[in-house]
Design goal:
The protein is α+β, with helices and mostly antiparallel strands. Helices cover 26% and strands 33% of the residues. It is built from 4 helices and 8 strands. An 8-stranded mixed sheet has the order 1-2-3-4-5-6-8-7, sandwiched between helices.
Length: 175
């Protein structure tokens, strides 16, 4: 499977304080930089903190380098602000993986920008639906609200996942 062209998307976001406007850059990332690897590690640590080991489905850096996965990082003023990935399940379906916003940028629209970027990329690839697994503890409520606000709905486990009280499965059709 061919990797996505390293296209760059520039998004204008108003900062959390509302006092300044910052440029956000979302780019395909090869997972070689310390900042990116650090945020992937913090993402995995967070998943392990809030879920038992058998319920952690987050991918490590090596798994995110799989040819079926395209990984993006978001940057604001030279600082890593967030990460997200799209895993191709088949020609029609993709799975959102490793969505994480750096704590310094939570509430600033980074997660929504990454999610919309992934949605657009999936449409461009001709996918007709996206799927995801997220946690069920209160710590995952902001992520669940984000996904719901972008049209995702609960569904049964998919692609090898099993029912798990610590997992919520969601999907949405792509128009």
């Amino acid at each position: 499977m061919a990797r996505a062209t390293p296209t760059i998307a520039y998004i204008r976001e108003v900062s959390r304080s509302g006092r300044k406007e910052s440029g956000m850059e979302i780019r395909v990332d090869d997972l070689s930089g310390d900042a990116t690897l650090g945020l992937v590690a913090r993402h995995l640590d967070g998943m392990r903190e809030y879920s038992p080991p058998e319920s952690v489905h987050a991918l490590d850096a090596e798994a995110l380098r799989d040819p079926a996965v395209t990984f993006w990082s978001a940057w604001i003023d030279g600082e890593i602000a967030g990460i997200g990935a799209l895993k191709t399940l088949d020609a029609d379906r993709g799975e959102i993986k490793s969505m994480r916003v750096d704590d310094r940028f939570r509430g600033a629209g980074v997660g929504r920008a990454l999610l919309r970027h992934i949605l657009a990329e999936a449409r461009e690839r001709g996918m007709t639906s996206l799927w995801l697994e997220t946690g069920t503890t209160p710590d995952f409520a902001p992520a669940q609200r984000l996904y719901e606000s972008e049209g995702f709905r609960s569904c049964d486990p998919f692609d090898g996942y099993a029912h798990d009280p610590f997992s919520r499965f969601m999907t949405r059709r792509l128009d």
